[in-house]
Every structure is written in structure tokens, then in C-alpha cells.
Amino acid sequence: MLFVGEAEMMSSRMVLVVSIIISAALSRLLPHFPNVTPIAAVALFSGAYLADRRLAFFVPLAAVFVSDIILGFYGPGEMAAVYVSFAIVVALGLWLREKRSALRIGSAAIAASLLFFVITNFAVWEFGTLYAKTGAGLIECYIAALPFFRHTLAGDLSYTLLLFGGFALLERNLPALRHNTATAR
Fold first, then answer.
1. Closest CA to 60 of 84, 95, 81
2. Residues in Cβ contact with 127 at an 8 Å cutoff, skipping those fewer than 6 apart
3. CA angle in degrees (0–180, nearest 5) for 165-24-50
4. Number of other residues whose CB lies within 10 A of the CB of residue 45
5. Of 36, 64, 88, 109, which cross-links 160 as Cys (Cβ 3.0–4.6 Å)?
6. Largest CA distance in the chain
7. 60 confidence band (pLDDT: 50, 70, 90)
8. So what's the pLDDT on residue 179?
9. CA 139 to chain centroid
10. How many Cβ atoms are within 10 Å of 108's Cβ, its own excluded?
């Protein structure tokens, strides 16, 4: 049971979280270094902070889809790999819900970068024509992608720090945003 004011607080919190997610995701449209985008951080943040699990998956994936409409679509196999990667990252964010610590959040951001790298580059090898469909071709694909991985990792860590750290500061300074974990009376 929610008490008077609690429903408004939860609503304000959700609106703020969704606004942060959409703003960060749409920043993908701004000029940036290759692979330095907020999308993995947005997916982690969504999983960690959106109470409704369906919204936790829908909001960041919809934001990516909208930005893909503007930026342009790419091969269906590669595109599916990107969306699956981000859905898995949202699931990592769900894992963060119970206990958010710097170590767990940082570990999740690194895992998100690694997952994205492995899944999407496998898709480039599998569905693309640049690499031979052999073990050596797969290894060549991963090696060729390594320079982009450092950008992905830097972006994921930076944006994760910005989103999680920024929201923690907002919660600390605006008591109305704090999630009430007390049981209903």
C-alpha cells in the first residue's frame, strides 16, 4: 500500500529515470568517437532503476531503435546481435538492483563491454563477407575489432559512472527521489 505522497514520489522518480535514459540514448545522435556511446550504460541503468521490468527492456531498446531510424539501419543479423547484446546488458542491470556498489556497477559495465564485443563481432563474422567462415576468420575478425573495443570500454565506463554516479548524487541531495524500501504498513 502506498501512502499519500509516496505515489507522487515514485512517479517523479520514474519520470526522471526514463528522462535520463532517453536523453542519454538520444545523445548517440551527437558527434562522438567510434563506439563511445552511452547505450550500454543506459541499458545497465534501465535494468537497475526502472521498477517495471518490461519498461527496463523497452525504454533503452526503443531509444536505440529510434536512433537507428535516424542514423540508418544495417544488416539484420548484425542488428539483431546489437539488440540482443543490449537486452542482456539490461538483465545485468536487473542483477544490480539488489545491491549497487561501485565494484558491482564497474564489473557490470566491463561485462557489458565484453558481451557487446563478443556478440556483435561474432555477428559481423557470421553474417558479413569480410572474413572467411573459418576459425581463423573469426579470430581475424576479433583482432580487427580490438581498436574499437578500447573505445567501447572507455565509453561504457564513463557513461556508467555519469549515469549511476549522477543519479546517486541526485538521490542523496533530493530526498523525494530516494526509493523507499520500508515495507508497507
1. 84
2. 75, 76, 77, 78
3. 70
4. 30
5. 109
6. 63
7. confident
8. 65
9. 26
10. 25
pLDDT single digits (tens) 120-138: 999 999 999 999 999 999 9
First to last CA, the chain: 7
Amino acid in the structure at residue 176: A
Angle at 109 between CA 106 and CA 115, to 5 degrees: 140
- At 145-157, the pLDDT tens digits run 999 999 999 999 9
Name the packing angle between helices 39-49 and 53-71 (round to 10°): 160
Rg, the chain, Cα only: 18
Residue 54, exposed/middle/buried by CB under 10 A (0-12, 13-18, 19+)?
exposed
Average pLDDT, integer, range 20-43:
82
Cell numbers for 113: 563491454
Which class would CATH give 6-175?
mainly alpha
CB-based contact 120:84 (threshold 8 Å) = no
Q: Read off φ and ψ for residue 183, nearest 5 degrees.
A: -75, 150
* Residue 22 identity: I
Three cell numbers, residue 77: 543479423
Residue with the three cell numbers 530526498: 175
